[in-house]
Amino acid sequence: MPRIPVHTIEDAPEAAREGLSDLAAKMGKVLNIHGEMAHAPVVLAAYRGMQAAIAEHGTFDARTREAIALAVGAVDECDYCQSAHTVAARAAGWSEAETIDIRRGGLDTDPELEALLSVVREITGQRGEVDDKTWQAARDAGWSEVELAEVFTHVAVNLYTNYFNHYARTELDLPQAPALH
Asked: What is the value of pTM for the model shown?
């Protein structure tokens, strides 16, 4: 059971209505996570601020962003984010089987991206620490220091939503991601 009320645009606090409305327009509806974030406008504003920074300054394409989100969600065991980003990853061109491979930790079809996702998984699972061998493997795969710095922001925004969903006990209002068995 959710700990935080899910707001509609009409009953959200005034300071959150515009942001919630913008997200609803983008997503096609008010998602439970966004409706819960709106309960404390600062939570929604912080999330939107991170998203805006990525939109303005980020260099990764949609497929890479969604692969990062799937990897973080899997490490964090966030059912909501794995489900949401499976839908988004499919829209970005990933097959369902590839989304499962990414979540499992082995995207054999794209070794370059898998090297980046190994960094992502270590950042997530080891509280920001990344082994030198993992870092160097990503560099050897062609990822620049700038890209490896940028990936941290993508991990951070996904940690933010993953942890919020755990904290708020957000109920799933999207199709469930396929099981990893």
From this structure: 0.96
